[in-house]
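User: Hello, beginner here. Can you help me understand these amino acid letters and fold codes? It all follows right here:
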Amino acid sequence: MIDELLADARERMAKSVESTTHEFATVRTGRASPALLDRVSVDYYGAVTPLKQLATVNAPEARMLTVQPYDQGSIPAVEKAIMQADLGLTPSNDGRIIRLSVPELNEERRRDMVKLVRSIAEEGRIAIRNVRRDVMQDLKELKDEGEVGADDEHRGEVELQKLTDQRVAELEQVLKSKEAEILEV
């Protein structure tokens, strides 16, 4: 029973780390990445639709993104959505393709990005600790119901803490590499 709880915790914590890593990809660095536009949603004929479903996003150069909508009539809506996403990118189009030039980040903007990345990492750590709290509660309930002994509960808690520390360290490693990427000139 305790092994099942720990396996569940392991899986949920891994998903938290994976989710946080994906969030990091949407934070802008000095380099163009199609993942920058993952959070952009377009009001397309009254329905809010993710940009990925309306267009092809490419990074043909290190500082350029291109967005090619499947429907040419949606170009103004896509441009408006990109502007409202507050990514610091200004779209320009030629009637078929929207080009986004990714400018160099100045020092102040880099510091803002580092703050944003740290807050995303903190959300990830909170998610991991919430999983730990839930499993600790389940272990306590098992002990209270008499299904496991106090020694087994303690062993489960120690194992859970090791797992939590491991996942938080993994998250810290990803955070450090993302900060280095942002601060790289």
Summary: Helices lie at 2-25, 51-54, 75-84, 107-144, 150-183.
